[in-house]
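User: Quick sanity check before I run a bigger batch. Here is a single chain. Can you write out its predicted 3D structure?
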Amino acid sequence: MAGFSFEELELDGAYLINYFHSSDNRGSFTKYFEKDIYADSKIEFKVNETFASVSDKNVIRGLHFQLHNPQAKLVCALKGRVWDVIVDLRLDSRTYKKWIGIELSKDNLRALYVPRGFAHGFVSLEDETILLYQCDGFYDKENDTGIRFDDPDIGIRWPVNIEKSIHSPRDLCLMSLKTYEERARQ
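Assistant: Done. Predicted structure follows.
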């Protein structure tokens, strides 16, 4: 289908995806996912769950992942803008501990494919931003965890004033990268 393109990112297995979008005098139509198109680009993805988050400006969510039974994710902004961050947490990866941040917005028609074994987070750059998540792999509440957004061993440079950022109590209690490494090796 015209309009889909896949850009392999510098973190092994991660892709920036330009998805199909069409508009005319009636409005618009957007396709975010088609199994065969993704498979042709070597992305095997089976949607197990779909959900959306709504965030006000300066909300930072994450860095989330499942310690065991990791999920792959496909994320895009349906409304507003986010600066989306992924961190490679695969201990045996050549890009381990490396991170990238990419702006996703309703207007730039991009999605981010987050492979299994990555942490994911974002900061909302506008009020009422809606981020759509599609996940491959089942949700495992027992292993749902994360690393603090400001862990110095990762060193993410968030594009907002951190002192004015908004977080959930859960996210402020997430583990450090050092604790993650100890737990992941068990």
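Helices lie at 35-40, 169-172, 177-184.

User: Great, the batch can go ahead then.
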